[in-house]
Amino acid sequence: TTPGVVFATPPVLLDLRAATVALLTFASWLSSETSPGEVQVSLDGVTWLTAALVPPSDDWMRVSVDLGAFAGRLVAIRFVFDGTAPDMWRIGRLTLQTAADPAFQIWR
Q1: Cα 104 to Cα 69: distance, rounded to the nearest angstrom
Q2: Are 91 and 79 in contact (CB under 8 A)?
Q3: Are 38 and 79 in contact (CB under 8 A)?
């Protein structure tokens, strides 16, 4: 089997220092036969931890990722996908909910 190409979005900084809870939600359409997507979190921009595995789907689905373990910290998140053509991962409507701020949108 030929290994796929690893795709990663640029990191997005999230300030969770005032938060006691944090929940990331987004729309996902992952067209893949073999590879899940990953939501990764970093405290230093070098070491990345997988916060969630996102399963393949045939259409848009809503995904929620509990980032409560990172409340009180400044973190970076990114989306990583190891796929081969014609696999694709579409992501949209990212929202972060915290106890400090009921809801704000990162990007659409």
Answers
A1: 19
A2: yes
A3: yes
- CB of 98 within 8 A of CB of 22? yes
What is d(CA 105, CA 102) in angstroms, rounded to the nearest whole number? 11
Q: What is the mean pLDDT of the chain?
A: 85
Residue type for position 108: R
Global pTM value: 0.83
Residue reference for tokens 């910290």 = 73
32 class by beta-carbon count within 10 Å (0-12 exposed, 13-18 middle, 19+ buried): buried
At residue 64, φ and ψ (nearest 5 deg) are -120, 135
